[in-house]
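PROTOCOL LOG
Step 1. Enter all chains and additional molecules of the complex.
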Amino acid sequence: MNEVSSARIFALSNQLLVKKNENLDLTFSLIDRVVNINFSDIGLHKQYSSSFMHHPQTTSENCDLEIFVIGSKNLPINSEFVSLVDKMRETSKSAQNSPIYFSSNDQFNISAQWNSKGEISTIYLYLKNTKKAVAWINTEATESLHDDDEIMSIAAPFRAILAWHYVQNGFYLFHASAIGNANAGVAFVGQSGSGKSSTSLICLNSNLQYCGDDSVLVSNQAVPRIHSLYCSARLNVEDLRYYPLLQSKVSASNKGKECIYFSPGLESLLVSDIPLVAMIIPKLVADAKTSYQKVSKIEMLAALAASSLLHVPGRDSSAEFKSFSEIVDKISCYRMNLGRDREDIPKYVQEILNSNI
Amino acid sequence: MENLDSKYKLSSVKILHETKGCETLVINLESGSYFILENVASLIWQMLVRQITLAEIEKNISEKMSVNEDVCQKELKYFVESLVSENLIVSVQGEVASQEISAELLQLYTAYSKPEVRKFTDMEALLLADPIHEFK
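Step 2. Run joint prediction.
Step 3. Record the structure below.
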């Protein structure tokens, strides 16, 4: 991307920082910071606000972050802004065939995603100085998709924007799920498909509460704390028998992967932030019994950093890596081999928590 | 492979590394691969990034641990070649000052074991789906 395109995108993005509809605001407090999201149409509001409904709602005065969500009905795919971003990938030698493009300069971070049909589906742009962001969504393109990417974009909306903003303010985005209570909690870390979500959801059958699935924010304190970002969870409908408390959230006719929301209705299962005392690398195994054992700090750092640093582009990976290392030094590290006896998982997690309080 | 007077530094690709106890994690952010180096491999890595020559590394190890010098030298060279082929380190040209390695750090390592590179590629798919392209 050349400087001319960069300057033009910057100019156009500033023109987009206008509320299309004053009535379609969602304003909430996330770790004592006020986030305002303005949606250009009711369909986007309905689809992308549910993941944030567990955060305390507040007024939009003194916002720390404003996100302007614009659908392709209001800003068509052939508009200058979208076309310029679409061309960015074409002119990039290294990103021509990639489904995600990322660029950054002193003024903004931008990432864009293309679907399997080659249509540009989302653009996230974060203006570093004004703390304002644009999220453009091709509603026609995403409506035609039914895959993991779509479920992720709905379950964890605007993740890159939130990560860029909160990392700039001293927090870290972990690619992890987390459960616990006011006294202690654990994070499950590892690559997608390793069992992070299912392990945390099955722990709801005990007295443990849910803090997040796939993406959580972390503050590096004397005892690190995990902060809930989304109240959504992705689950396989076939596994619903393991999560009796969640059955009311899924229609019996549904199959495959589903995104569910804890709010409204299941707020009692949620915890907004937890002290992080242990991290667990889940691993699906063919054994009958689930077991766990300690692993080295380096093995945990590998699982956490390799996955989390690659999860959202555009972060200062060196600085975050150092902080990840400090956090790992403060907690206990385990691997949990997930056997077929899933019912025992909460018992083992509770044992880990009890031994680390 | 250069010679025993060769020194090395991190390659120009984005490399993150951290050592805890006798283990070192090295992440290549451009490929998504990561590597765990244990025991003597970790010690050698720490000396390599301090620009200590291969001759000095071999001397440090063979004096401290009961290992045949020829075996040590052969395995050291093979290990360093592996790190170079993974594009984690490159040889340094010209005069470069070495940093000393502390006696406390050396004391952590007592027994010799063949230095090996444990490579993990399970995160490469994540990187391929999420490439980083920066412009200034």
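Step 4. Note key features.
The first helix of chain A runs from residue 3 to 15.
The first strand of chain A starts at residue 25 and ends at 30.
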